[in-house]
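Data card: per-record layout.
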Amino acid sequence: MPAGMEQIFLLVAMFAVFYLLLIRPQQKRVKEHKARIAAIRRGDTVVTGGGVIGKVVKVESGEEVVVEIAPNTQVRLVSATIADVRAKGEPVKEPAATKKPANDAE
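The structure for this 106-residue chain is written out next.
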């Protein structure tokens, strides 16, 4: 084998190792993070990029969410700034005013 072929083989092998150990796992983490951010709904507990923990009050659009970080303190965030979804909230239930009572005593 010529001397130049050994060097090319070594470079290809190093690139393959970097791809398998660094690039591919990072792409997988980014894909999972985008899926978690896209699935945010009201009631979820989230952590922002700055480390602020809050509860999602409203998802305004695909790009913005309203998060309550303290009682009566709400902030609008770009969804890309959310670093993690800590706890999934319960599904949104119907308002109590629209439900009919089960037994009428009249």
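Known properties of this structure: The longest helix spans residues 3-38. Residues 17 and 74 are 46 Å apart (CA to CA).

See the next section for split statistics.
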